[in-house]
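Protein folds are increasingly written down as discrete tokens. With that in mind, we are printing a sequence and the tokens encoding its fold.
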Amino acid sequence: MTDLHPNAWFWFVLITVLLGRGLDLVATWLNLRSLRPELPAAMADVFDAEKYAESQAYTRANARFGVVETAFSLVLFFVFWLAGGFGWLDGIVRGWNLGGVVSGLVYVSLIFLGHYVLTLPLELYDTFVIEERFGFNRTTVGTFIVDQVKALALGAVLGLPLLALILWIFGTLPAAWFWGWLAMTVVTLVLAYVAPTWIMPLFNKFEPLEDGKLKSEIHAMAGHCDFPLREVMVMDGSKRSTKSNAFFTGFGKNKRIALFDTLVERHTTEELVAVLAHEIGHYKRRHIQKGMALGILTNGLFFFLLGRVIENRGLFDAFGVADTSIYLSLIFFGILVQPLSQIIGVLGNVFSRKWEFEADSFAAVVTKTPGALVSALKKLSKDNLSNLTPHPLNVFLNYSHPPVLQRIEALESETAG
């Protein structure tokens, strides 16, 4: 371990971390100030005064909890950093003489597990206090524990070999950033293909939608849209939460639509077909491919930048570490690149919100009943206690979907048109 050196790297990390978290806090504060006691007229047919007040209380509870999470993560990071924790732990791991790749796996695992253990109480509070208070939580203690064990095991099985490969590439090959990017791209594409069949069923049960009117109309809509739908699955989302959702999975001829069981229980056939049409709209407008391409290009940028700072002496001095290494370079880069990640995340949300409008428009056109999707969106907002009046800055920074009132306004304009 060596002393910290407040060089340019040190001040860059310090300032950008504080600015990034500060911007989040400002957005949260503005979001709370934008709450209005008057129920928006467009939602009066679904929300009553009591449910609307509950949605605002849920927004406030999550905002306060978010502030606590942010403060805790900042304190945790700065204490470990400024107390020389990175160098202290590196000295211990190096003393075991495990070699570069294995030392990297051990070091990163210890950092991850330390953070996991320290932040686990926050996850428990979120699940069993906040979500429980507002009637969402259906996760039992047993399910929570099993989920955690599965997630840790899956992370080890998938993450450690990938990390070992990245460490080997950067320690061995020329133009390592390119080969690292290529390896990450291959793994990303493979996981996207196998996740619906091999990974997601580890956590949830997926069963084919039973025969009946809903299944017939969904397949009829898929045929009308020339969408190669293999099957419609119902996921036991109610095992953990009363919230509802739907999503698209699969590639090529193996496309599936997954509906939460809570969604099927609470919505009419017409509304569910409209939700399906929205998901098909993402496929027909190539949003999935565009999103994946953006993700791959972003990874390429990150790997290129990583190649510029691998084993940078000034960066190690800023974090108080005596000896350079590939594995600590990865960790320091992850901290260093946070501002760029935040900017790219915001830009990604801009595209995502645009794509949601496009998928809504597609659904309105192919179903010829925009009101069905409007009705579904209203019910989802009520059932999930959505914030109906988010502040524009919070939307700009954090929302992957447009606020529900904006989506309803756009759909109603489709009707008027």
User: Anything to note?
Assistant: Strands lie at 206-208, 229-235, 246-249, 255-260. Residues 49-82 form the longest helix (34 residues).
